[in-house]
Design a protein that fits this description.
Helix content is 10%, strand content 38%. The protein is built from 1 helix and 4 strands, in the order αββββ. It has one helix at residues 9-15; strands at residues 20-24, 29-37, 48-55, 61-66.
């Protein structure tokens, strides 16, 4: 059984940390990755904390995807 600690595919995600992708050079939109190892927990079963966000020309976060977690009420 492969655990989060020795799963080589997680290294691919970790390599994305800090990457900024220019999605629309004329409009100034970009995608940004933040990926880091954290202790394994029920909320972060793979031992990663991550987010992928889309930003507008002024840097405002427009859309974001991150670790799955329950939404508070």
């Amino acid at each position: 059984m492969v655990t989060a600690a020795d799963d080589p595919t997680l290294d691919v995600l970790l390599d994305l940390d800090g990457q900024v992708l220019v999605v629309d050079p004329e409009g100034g939109h970009s995608g940004r990755f933040v990926v880091m190892r954290v202790p394994v927990s029920p909320e972060k079963a793979q031992g990663l904390d991550y987010s992928l966000t889309l930003h507008g020309p002024d840097g405002e976060r427009l859309v974001g995807f991150d670790n799955t977690h329950p939404v508070g009420r």
